[in-house]
Amino acid sequence: MTVIPYKENTETKKEQVATMFNNISHKYDFLNHFLSLGIDILWRKKAIRLLKPSQPKIILDVATGTGDFAIEALKLNPTQIIGVDISEGMLNVGKEKMKAKGVDHIISLEVGDSENLRFETNFFDAYTVAFGVRNFENLEKGLSEMLRVLKPNGTAIVLEFSKPKKFPIKQLYHFYFNKILPGIGNLISKDNAAYTYLPESVYAFPDGVNFTSLLSKIGYKNAQAIPLLFGIATIYKANK
User: Coil, strand, or helix at residue 5?
Assistant: First the structure.
């Protein structure tokens, strides 16, 4: 069963996700860092460090949102980073951020769909996705399309929430995700569905070995999962 933000809405998941992020774009950065206690920043830093050995020059950041992962990727000294997202609201916030930081000559943000990328085959040295793949309408199609635009031997980095398995982290995680996070998120963002959808989408996502198996099935090589903070999130790394 497909998890969607607005249960009574007849739009596709893709359309609903775009609407949801448009609705919360003005508060997204604050909530992201506040609800994770800033740990999401450390996770992005670690994910980008995994790309350092390959020194990618042209990077695609899928589901870029307001561009935080793209900004972190500047530490790799790339010549070009292109961020794509289906939410114009998030991109507008991101574009202002790039201008303010003076990095809009390296990082460009544009409307784009992971399942139908406009780029040539074998174009990017690496791609990154942070907390975005679980929102794909067709996960396999999105992963296949991102693989297409990656150069041979290029690197894929996916950072995503996962489900802790061990006591007591598992129980604490479920309590926070189901009881605390939705209330705070809904109060601040004013979107009653967005932070209820978040835990639902995490529970439905095929994390861990299920995701690395999917990557291998699609055609990725050397797929590996690197758990973070007792399995609350995971970095997936693979090559073309």
Answer: coil
pTM exceeds 0.85: yes
CA distance 59 to 74: 10
Residue by residue, DSSP assigns 37-85 as TTHHHHHHHHHHHTTGGG--SEEEEET-TTSHHHHHGGGG--SEEEEEE
Could you report the per-residue pLDDT of 176-204, keeping only the tens digit for each? 888 887 788 778 778 778 788 888 999 99
**Which pLDDT belongs to residue 35?**
67
Q: What is the token pair recorded at 200?
A: 């639902």
Q: Could you tell me if residue 212 is left (phi over 0), alpha (psi between -120 and 50 degrees) or otherwise beta?
A: alpha
Q: What span, in angstroms and rounded, lies between the C-alpha atoms of 40 and 70?
A: 14
What are 29-39's pLDDT values in tens digits? 877 777 677 88
Residue 164's Cβ-side half-sphere holds a number of Cα atoms within 13 Å equal to: 17
The first and second tokens of residue 83, run together, are: 């961020």
What are the structure tokens assigned to 60, written together?
């695609």
Q: In what order do the strands lie in the sheet with 233-239?
A: 107-111, 80-85, 58-62, 124-130, 150-161, 233-239, 221-228
How far, in Å, CA of 63 to CA of 199, rounded? Answer: 18
Q: Which single residue is written with the structure tokens 């995503």?
A: 160
Run of H or E residues at 28:
helix 28-35
- Cα–Cα distance, 64 to 109 (Å, whole number): 8
What is the rounded distance in angstroms from the CA atom of residue 97 to the CA atom of residue 78?
Answer: 18
Between CA 207 and CA 26 the distance in angstroms is 29
By the 8 A CB rule, do 62 and 146 touch? Answer: yes
